[in-house]
Design brief:
By secondary structure, the chain is an alpha/beta fold. It is built from 20 helices and 30 strands. Strand 9 and strand 10 form a beta hairpin. The structure holds 5'-O-[(S)-ethoxy(hydroxy)phosphoryl]adenosine.
């Protein structure tokens, strides 16, 4: 199908990008001299209905508001700006289904589809400006089309990852009070059809029990399977589109910069996921610029971000970022190692991918299968490689650089979060590449003021491990947490800010080191959040799920190191009187987590103990559990209530490690 349109030439690294730290730091220095005028200049590259009166309103800090008085719609920048240009007939998505079926979607196709869907959502379904619409779709082109149609009419999308369970979906529907749900009949994963509509239906029932009635369910036909149907409520996506005039045009609704563009739920340190809100004005400005700095997009590029749109990486780097740059992309539905471990490499070769962005977890997995899978394929089209989601170990970095990129392509390691909108710390070949150090995300991007602090708030010395902070607001920052302004302040701003002095410091809850050259090394979460295969999971969410089982009296979930996934959840459980540990019970507890959250959260192991290590005041000492799992010294135990608890857990952990080794 796809012609190879990339340059295809194998240029030595130094001829594509000649690394210069000075050139980058010079640009950076200017950017932070006056962030307001810097971002104001950057925002002028986008289309606005009305430009802003105030670049940055700090008066309600930490509820910073960007480009206040401005009006726009992200469709103007991602879609409508291409009408009448050469990009309009360019491919937006080379889509490939897991079974190998393909579709080619041009910018023109996407524009038509989005307009017709927007028309139908407005005229037939009755979605209004400011409504929330929940989207529960797999990786098919209808997903970006739906997101654009929703934002086009001024509604707010809440995309829920298709791997989440009905209960998790229901919780997100309820929190967002969504009356419309958009889903699919099913999709392919590892050769199986996942029956998504069935799960969506269960979620609708669960949401109704919590008082939120989903009035319409729109269903994309992807797998062609039989689905349960609720007459009057359910409607096929293709039937809806057919209702719209073929040349439907819906004007993108002008929205205020500080309106909510979308919500995306993410895990934190309580049982309840947070609805992170991104803004109509700031988010596109930040994403547009960072995309350019990260990937230095060029006309012939074939770009592939192998994430899922259900996470922030997909929102920013598969939907809005690339579309705002008129880039041609590869989009893939299924498992990365299906039907064999060469799937990714063969697709890079087939489409002539120039820019490839993925997670360290996927690289570790593919590396484990052996180099022969990489070597079989011509990967010389690759010009830039990227990673995101977790720290990348230097060995894997080197393998990626040498084996995959043939030492020609720089590795753009991007540190960021759902809350930050796009990358914050990463190399920027689109400005000037700095010399790379394997395992470091290098420098903060322009306009980003980052530092590493000690727990007491004083700056860490070079080389000293501390806590990452961001000291100035940036346009891609979250606007807040949906329905919970207090939690926003408590989670992100309480740790180091000094409100009485008017000093607000953003706290991402990541450990970091800044070295002598000013390079940042990101070292993982500093809170009770796990990073499993690049997916962010709250330990308390998992514990709450396990505690719903009648046999469980107490549960502590911690992360154990894993060579591929980075971390895996391990549950340490105390049973109620009358229950005995068994394999059957372990299976049941895992099943409970699968049902309440989803397959990604299932613990690798459940360890049954009689007693958890606790302080005298009754707080579970996770620190001890983590140290035991990581094989590190358990440190100070003076506050421990009963040392016998440690011995018991320690024995259970040793047993678990033996099992892991032999499997
Ligand atoms: C971690 C994903 C090291 C970090 C975009 C952060 C990283 C969390 C990196 C956010 C990186 C992300 N190096 N760690 N390059 N990128 N992280 O919200 O702990 O799913 O706080 O956003 O992932 O996860 P989230």
């Amino acid at each position: 199908m796809a012609e190879h349109t990339g340059s295809g030439e194998a240029l030595p690294f130094s001829e594509v990008y000649y690394p210069s730290r000075e050139a980058y730091l010079e640009y950076y220095r200017k950017s932070v001299e006056d962030i307001e005028s810097f971002w104001s200049e950057r925002a002028r590259e986008l289309e606005w209905y009305k430009t802003w009166d105030v670049v940055l309103d700090r008066s309600k800090a930490p509820f910073y508001r960007w480009f206040v008085g401005g009006e726009t719609n992200i469709n103007l920048n991602a879609l409508d700006r291409w009408v009448g240009t050469s990009v309009f007939d360019k491919v937006a998505y080379y889509w490939e289904g897991e079974p190998g079926d393909t579709r080619v979607v041009t910018y023109r196709d996407l524009y038509r589809e989005v307009n017709r869907l927007a028309w139908a959502l407005k005229e037939i379904v009755g979605v209004k400006e400011g409504d929330t619409v929940t989207i529960y779709l797999p990786m098919i082109p209808e997903l970006p089309a739906t997101m654009l149609a929703v934002t086009r009419i001024g509604a707010i999308h809440s995309v829920v990852f298709s791997g989440f369970s009905p209960q998790a979906l229901a919780d997100r529907i309820v929190d967002a009070k969504a009356r419309v749900l958009i889903t699919a009949d099913g999709f392919y994963r590892r050769g199986r059809v996942i029956k998504l509509k069935e799960q969506a239906d269960q979620a609708v029932v669960l949401a109704a029990e919590q008082g939120v009635k989903v009035e319409r369910v729109i269903v994309v036909k992807r797998a062609g399977i039989e689905v349960p149907w609720s007459e009057g409520r359910d409607v096929w996506y293709h039937d809806l589109i057919k209702e719209a005039p073929e040349r439907a045009y819906v004007k993108p609704v002008p929205r205020k910069s500080d309106d909510v563009l979308f919500i995306l739920y993410t895990s934190g340190t309580t049982g309840k996921p947070k609805g992170i809100m991104h803004s109509v004005g700031g988010y596109p400005v930040y994403v547009y610029n960072v995309f350019k700095w990260n990937w230095d997009p060029r006309p012939g590029d074939i770009y592939w971000c192998a994430a899922d749109i259900g996470w922030i990486t997909g929102h920013t780097y598969i939907v809005y970022g690339p579309l705002m740059h008129g880039v041609s992309q590869v989009m893939y539905e299924g498992a990365p190692d299906y039907p064999d471990p060469g799937r990714i490499w063969s697709m890079i070769e087939k489409y002539g991918v120039t820019t490839f962005y993925t997670s360290p977890t996927l690289l570790r997995l593919l590396r484990k299968y052996g180099d022969q899978w990489v070597e079989k394929h011509d990967l010389s089209s690759l010009r830039i490689l990227g990673t995101v989601g977790e720290p990348i170990n230097p060995e894997v970095w080197k393998w990626y650089y040498e084996k995959v990129g043939g030492k020609r392509a720089p590795i753009v390691d991007t540190w960021w979060q759902t809350e930050t909108g796009a990358a914050m710390i990463s190399p920027a070949p689109g400005i000037s590449l700095v010399p790379l150090k394997p395992g470091s995300a290098t420098y903060p991007l322009p306009g980003i003021v980052a530092d590493v602090l000690r727990p007491d708030g004083t700056p860490a010395r070079p080389g000293e491990k501390g806590l990452l902070v961001i000291k100035e607001p940036w346009p891609g920052m979250l606007m807040g947490i949906w329905g919970d302004p207090e939690r926003y302040i408590k989670t992100y701003w309480a740790r180091f800010s000094r409100p009485e002095e008017g000093v607000w410091i953003y706290y991402p809850a990541d450990y970091a080191v800044k070295d002598e050259d000013g390079y940042f090394w990101l070292l993982g979460r500093a809170d009770e959040v796990l990073n499993v295969a690049g997916h962010r999971l709250g330990t308390i969410e998992l514990e709450d799920a396990i505690l719903t089982h009648p046999a469980v009296s107490e549960a502590a979930v911690v992360g154990a190191p894993d060579p591929v996934k980075g971390q895996v959840p391990v549950a340490v459980v105390v049973l109620r009187e009358g229950y005995e540990p068994s394999d059957e019970l372990e299976r049941e507890l895992k099943e409970t987590v699968r049902k309440l959250i989803g397959p990604i959260a299932v613990p690798a192991k459940v360890l049954f103990v009689k007693k958890l290590p606790k302080t005298r005041s009754g707080k579970i000492m996770r620190r001890i559990l983590i140290a035991l799992l990581e094989g590190k010294p358990i440190g100070d135990t003076s506050t421990l209530e009963d040392p016998a608890a440690v011995e018991e857990v320690s024995r259970a952990v040793e047993e678990f490690k033996r099992l892991m080794k032999s499997s």
